[in-house]
Amino acid sequence: MTYLATHQPNNTIDNRKAYKLLWLADRYHLRKYGRTITGDTYYAMPYGIVPSDTKCLLEGKKTKMSNPSGYKNKYIASVNSHQFKAISEPDLKIFSDSDQNALDLVLDVFGHLDAHQLSELSHHFPEWLYFKDLLEDENAKNSYKIDLDLFFENATVDSKGVFDDNPDLLNLTKELYHQYSHV
Questions:
Q1: Number of other residues whose CB lies within 10 A of the CB of residue 168
Q2: Domain positions in the chain
Q3: Exposed end of the chain (fewer CB within 10 Å): N or C?
């Protein structure tokens, strides 16, 4: 979150924009390296894909993190209910080179989009489309846990080639993900 915010004007980022950029970075990294950057759990919601632990962190709710309030107090501050500001530089030691490369790629390709544009973009990815009918049904619940296997499907939307990979390579990475995620 802090990494993304420090790459925005005034070190400030909208929560929905942060959610979508984290999702794109995790999606990219999972497809290339067989693991996500954040380890977060993702949900399909009406406004797109949301990382649940990150959302809980920003809302001051319980997370899987060992000390979420410590992180939030040290690195980010609320500007208002939807915007957050980086108040210190991110701890780059927690990121691998591939983590930083994925974050930088996502910022380069998608960082200029606003929260609404990113939300609309997410509605064209398999992990949101899988739940589309349910999410558009006002009588159904409004969030559904995403199986990360859907991240391995190519996107049908123009994503500047970032999510249009060779299916054979994706299958190999998916096998690695399954092999090491259940250890």
A1: 8
A2: 2-181
A3: C
